[in-house]
Amino acid sequence: MPKQIDQKELEAIAQAVAKYPEGVKIEALLNSGLGLRKRTLQRRLVKLVADGRLITEGEARALRYKIAPVTLSGHVTATST
User: Fold this and answer.
1) What integer is the mean pLDDT of 46-56?
2) How far is the C-alpha of 51 from the C-alpha of 17, rounded, in Å?
3) Which of 14, 19, 58, 68 could form a disulfide with 62 if both were Cys (CB 3.0 to 4.6 A apart)?
4) pTM of this structure
5) Kindly report the CA angle at 54 between 44 and 41, in degrees rounded to 5?
6) Helix runs in the chain, H state only
7) Position 75 confidence tier, pLDDT thresholds 50, 70, 90
8) What are the CA-CA distances from residue 57 to residues 5, 11, 24, 62 (Å)?
9) How far apart are CA 25 and CA 59, in angstroms?
């Protein structure tokens, strides 16, 4: 059975990403005091993207994470590249 992910941990990551409106690379998040190892942070970011809370821009080393835009109806718009 997979380990349950602490929702407070996911919220902390989302809040850290929100501080960078132009997007943030994983290296900056690793240095932001979240206290997560790189692979753990990568897994959490993948979950947040899959849940529609974050979007990505770029590829490979240029990959940046951003908060997903929300419409007036409260739905997330799918604009990840």
Assistant:
1) 96
2) 15
3) 58
4) 0.82
5) 20
6) 7-18, 26-30, 38-50
7) low
8) 24, 20, 10, 8
9) 11
Phi, psi dihedral angles at 2 (to 5 degrees):
-65, 150
Residue type, 14: A
Classify residue 8 by burial, with Cβ atoms within 10 Å: 0-12, 13-18, 19+.
exposed
What is the average per-residue pLDDT within 19-46?
A: 95
How would residue 4 be classed by pLDDT, with cut points 50, 70 and 90?
A: confident
pLDDT at 21 over 90: yes
Give residue 60's identity as a one-letter amino acid code.
A
Say if residue 55 is exposed, middle or buried (CB neighbours under 10 Å; 0-12, 13-18, 19+). Answer: buried
